[in-house]
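Working notes for the structural subgroup meeting. M.R. asked for a predicted model of this chain before we commit to crystallization trials. I am recording the input and output together here so anyone reviewing the notebook later can reproduce the run.

Input as submitted:
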Amino acid sequence: MQHFELNLKNYEIAGAHCLKLPYESPCQNLHGHNWYISIQIKSKSLAEHGMILDFKHIKDYLKSFDHQNINSLVDFNPTAENLAKHFGEYVWMLAKKEGCKGVYFVKCEVTEAEHNTAAWVWEK
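Returned structure, recorded in token form:
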């Protein structure tokens, strides 16, 4: 099967968050990370403009999280896993909005420290 892929690798944003956890953890205190976000999209087709999705539109959305308190921007516990899901769902919906109807795979990875990466995968 032929398909197209879009890969955004290690887009960096800096931000702070604090987690709501049912146990004692230093992560309950406001703290910061330099997050690296990688997104992969696979599609059987392209939108009319010849792309799955414009990289600029993805980066503009991610940039809105840069140097922010992430807790003030989202209505969920901003764990790396939940952020991966949030960003992944956003780009999937954005691709559909821009006219790419063939998307069948989205993967978003959020790295918050060198050895700590969480991912969300959607596959049709």
